[in-house]
Specification:
Layout: H1 2-18, E1 22-27, E2 36-48, E3 53-56, E4 67-72, H2 75-83, E5 88-99
Antiparallel strand pairs: 1-4, 2-3, 2-5, 4-5
């Protein structure tokens, strides 16, 4: 019982830390323009078997050449990932574009 009490906080901390990671990827000439950022699309990427087999990707649904892809795993996504031992994987994806017409 004492071993469980010492391992449980470590597992909880790791669980919350893995749900906070954010990855930003600039595609095309997204970085070279100095316009305001506008969110274009938000969706969920779904993968199977420890993210080896993509089932649905948000990036394929857009038809833009210059954008920023922001990928993170929310709390719900982390619960699903660890609850299924990695067989199902969800990630929240936001596609940002530069809005030069608003200035």
């Amino acid at each position: 019982m004492k071993a469980i009490k010492s391992v449980l906080p470590i597992i909880t901390i790791l669980f919350f830390l893995t749900s906070c990671g954010v990855q930003r990827v600039a595609v095309g000439n997204y970085e070279s323009t100095d316009c305001k950022t506008k969110q274009h699309t938000e969706g969920k990427d779904i993968s199977l078997f420890w993210e080896m087999v993509p089932v649905r990707t948000t990036e394929k649904k857009i038809n833009i050449t210059d954008y920023e892809k922001v990928v993170k795993r929310d709390f719900f996504d982390t619960v699903i990932f660890y609850g299924t031992a990695g067989i199902f994987s969800f990630k929240t994806v936001k596609i940002n574009v530069r809005d030069c017409e608003a200035e």
